[in-house]
């Protein structure tokens, strides 16, 4: 007897892994396409196969008997998603929406048509094009970049060759964007179902280090009520206009003159929403599952005044042992701390876990979350408290 429809997830990273727990609570069977044996999500989702997401036959095999398919990443070829849709699989988010997260050039064109505020931008193909656009600027490959990869700040002609070469080798275009004078980076996360129901989480402040998200504070401190509402409205409008199903993360700049500009889109659970696992009534992972299965969405309301998420990044120190060995200190020091590890091998700068803290005192939450993350990374030595 089938108790519930099976949901296929493409990609075996930590985002798929963190969908497993709410799926268990919902009684929702998952089937995983993993890129390798023993990857993060493959450790917790038993119904799995290993294969290449770029192979349509593999995608058809893993989705056989599944009513819905969703994603841990946005790299599945658009034409394959159309083929799955034609075969009767509900692809969520659908290919016509997902392409805006796959291709930054397509995204910029569409957001301009919608009148969504964005940095000045243009597709460039030569040094002369970049010179005409103006230095300094940011160059991005239109496809494939993430966590600072495929992104360059260029300040003169000598900096342009590498981005153009990398893009040519990858067979993608280069997008030039103005180097925004921003106060900070923000993120607005919303969930949207096929029936059009939507839920918006508070706009959060994100702190980046070497192109990788390091910390998130929810809600963003000292954000005016007007900008907080505008950020949520921008994300909700984009989700509706593009027909997004599932979680949409809209990364934004808050400029020094008090404007919001859209930087990036992600159509899946997002690092800037990990705080919701413990700090919101319904996590982004559960609401993603609810949305793609067209179930009523859960409340995005915060559980406390403040929530802080700090990523645990892989250490370059050879003497740092197993992440598991950090539990005795971290848990004894702070019984209210919540730790989420991804089952990944330690590599310098790699996201291997995160810690969440919520409460009424922001400084206290920051200190506790940072201490725990530093301890797991080996940045605090072997002190004890």
Keywords:
single chain; alpha+beta; 9-stranded antiparallel beta sheet; PreATP-grasp_dom_sf; nucleotide-binding; PurK; ATP-binding; purine biosynthesis
Please explain how this structure is put together.
- By secondary structure, the protein is α+β, with helices and mostly antiparallel strands.
- Helix content is 31%, strand content 26%.
- It has helices at 14-26, 56-63, 78-86, 95-102, 104-114, 127-133, 161-170, 225-242, 276-279, 284-292, 327-333, 362-377, and strands at 7-10, 30-34, 48-50, 68-71, 90-91, 121-124, 137-141, 151-154, 174-178, 182-192, 198-200, 204-209, 212-218, 246-255, 260-266, 306-313, 338-341, 351-359.
- α1 (14-26) packs across α10, α3 (78-86) packs antiparallel against α4 (95-102) and α4 (95-102) packs across α5.
- The longest helix is centred in the middle third of the chain and has 18 residues, at 225-242.
- It is globular, with a radius of gyration of 21 Å.
- The relative contact order is 0.11.
């Amino acid at each position: 007897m089938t108790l519930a429809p099976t949901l296929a997830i493409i990609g075996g990273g930590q985002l798929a892994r963190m969908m497993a727990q709410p799926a268990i609570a919902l009684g929702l069977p998952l089937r995983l396409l993993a890129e390798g044996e023993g990857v993060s999500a493959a450790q917790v989702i038993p119904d799995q196969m290993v294969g290449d997401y770029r192979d349509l036959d593999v995608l058809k095999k893993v989705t056989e008997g599944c009513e819905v398919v969703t994603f841990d990443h946005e790299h599945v070829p658009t034409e394959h998603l159309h083929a799955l849709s034609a075969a009767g699989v509900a692809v969520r988010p659908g290919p016509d929406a997902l392409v805006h997260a796959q291709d930054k050039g397509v995204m910029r064109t569409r957001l301009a048509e919608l009148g969504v505020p964005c940095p000045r931008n243009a597709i460039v193909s030569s040094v002369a094009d970049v010179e005409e656009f103006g230095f300094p600027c940011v160059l991005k490959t239109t496809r494939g970049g993430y966590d600072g990869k495929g992104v360059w700040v260029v300040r003169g002609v000598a900096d342009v060759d590498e981005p153009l070469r990398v893009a040519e080798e990858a067979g993608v275009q280069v997008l030039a964007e103005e180097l925004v004078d921003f106060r900070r980076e923000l993120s607005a996360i919303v969930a949207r179902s096929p029936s059009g129901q939507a839920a918006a989480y508070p706009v959060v402040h994100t702190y980046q280090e070497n192109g990788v998200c390091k910390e998130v504070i929810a809600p963003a401190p000292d954000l005016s009520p007007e900008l907080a509402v505008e950020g949520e409205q921008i994300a909700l409008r984009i989700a509706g206009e593009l027909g997004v199903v599932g979680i949409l993360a809209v990364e934004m700049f808050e400029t020094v003159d008090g404007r919001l500009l859209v930087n990036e889109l992600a159509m899946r659970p997002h690092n800037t929403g990990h705080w919701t696992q413990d700090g919101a009534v319904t996590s982004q992972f559960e609401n993603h599952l609810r949305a793609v299965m067209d179930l009523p969405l859960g409340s995005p309301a915060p559980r406390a005044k403040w929530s802080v998420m700090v990523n645990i990044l892989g250490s370059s120190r050879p003497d740092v042992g197993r992440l598991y060995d950090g539990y005795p200190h971290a848990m004894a020091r702070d019984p209210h701390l919540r730790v989420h590890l991804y089952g990944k091998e330690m590599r310098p700068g790699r996201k291997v876990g995160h810690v969440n803290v919520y409460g009424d005192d922001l400084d206290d939450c920051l200190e506790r979350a940072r201490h725990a993350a530093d301890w797991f990374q080996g940045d605090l030595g072997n002190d004890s408290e």
